[in-house]
Design brief:
The chain is mainly alpha-helical. The protein has four helices and no strands.
Length: 75
């Protein structure tokens, strides 16, 4: 999947939850992405945010950071 499309979709989701959930928006966005996005899409958006945070809204970026699995990072 095209990373530009993933960023656009994450930003669209953030626009909705920013207006509905306020300060809880990043958690709601992360929950939505977890429930409705294919694992490959989630992996792609996490990798994109790690490589370059440009293009993300603040709440979309915060949400993607919530999606990063805990544990040691690969070398």
């Amino acid at each position: 999947m095209n990373t530009e499309n993933l960023i656009r979709m994450a930003n669209d989701i953030s626009a909705f939850f920013d207006s509905e959930a306020g300060a809880d928006a990043p958690a709601q966005i992360a929950s939505h992405i977890t429930r409705f996005w294919d694992p490959r899409m989630r992996t792609g958006i996490i990798a994109q945010a790690a490589a370059n945070e440009a293009g993300f809204t603040a709440s979309a970026l915060a949400a993607v950071k919530l999606l990063v699995p805990p544990g040691p990072r690969p070398l």
